[in-house]
Amino acid sequence: MNDRPRTPSHRPQRPFPPRPGGAGARHGERERPAGRPFGEWPADVAILYGWHSVSEALRNPQRRVRKLMATENALKRLTDESVPMTVEPEVVRPGAIDRLLDKDAVHQGLLLECDPLPSLTLKEAAHCDLLLVLDQITDPHNVGAIVRSAAALKVGAIVTTARHSPAATGVLAKSASGGLEHVPFCFVGNLSRALDELKDHGVLVVGLDSEGAADLTDTALRAPLALVLGAEGKGLRQLTRQTCNVLARIDLPGAIVSLNVSNAAVLALHIARRAIARQG
């Protein structure tokens, strides 16, 4: 909520769209140094690392695992905690995983290659009591943190565009801390048309915007509900704002009057979940 609220992946049978330079690269990014092939993995492979991301994926029967790399200590922890392993793990030294990831990646001795999860159709998503819609939020750390909060607050699905959204792999998956296994994505081609379709299915579409008519806590919320969040700084795009049923803001009592998008998301979701619960 700077000028606009800073309030503000699973796919049909197709995996995430190819990124220029590989699954992790974006246009304009420099190539990773030799020996760090993270950006060279195919677009139809999800790369997960870290304890929560990998262990939750292994527990998810929908995940098709291709390869598991684990250090001796990490493998012992997986065994001790009875985490199912559908492939024979490749036992490696930590440096072998280090060489496959960015230098600041905290992998905790685990790296998993797997298929992306399937996504919901918009019609399926419309049956959920609480949805989260992301309007061109592209930072994988923010999206990952949002996914984690969405899992904690029992969001039925996250709706976003196939373009201008980060792939559910690598940094996003690590930031989600296992949340990807619990909140399906729904990818759409045109967000405003998707919002219109949700409204046709009876979903109340509420956009978070600093110019909203009322605070979110004072806004009449009911299920099925979709909260729409825009990118940091930019907020909701004009057509997105016009398509929402209502715009609401988040008023803050302290000296800091804006939140980053992931913090705004968890606060808005908590308000929405409480409102839905009061409906019975």
TrEMBL record:
GO CC annotations on file: cytosol
Keyword set includes Methyltransferase: yes
Alphabetical list of Gene3D superfamilies matching this protein: 3.30.1330.30, 3.40.1280.10
Gene Ontology biological process terms, A to Z: methylation; RNA processing
Family annotation (Pfam families): SpoU_methylase, SpoU_sub_bind
Domain named RNA 2-O ribose methyltransferase substrate binding: residues: 47-120
Gene Ontology MF: a single term: RNA binding
Disordered: region residues: 1-38
Keywords attached to this entry: Methyltransferase, Transferase
InterPro entries (alphabetical): Alpha/beta_knot_MTases, Ribosomal_eL30-like_sf, rRNA_MeTrfase_TrmH, SpoU_MeTrfase, SpoU_subst-bd, tRNA_m1G_MTases_N
Protein's name in the database: RNA methyltransferase
UniProt source species: Ancylobacter pratisalsi
Lineage: Bacteria, Pseudomonadati, Pseudomonadota, Alphaproteobacteria, Hyphomicrobiales
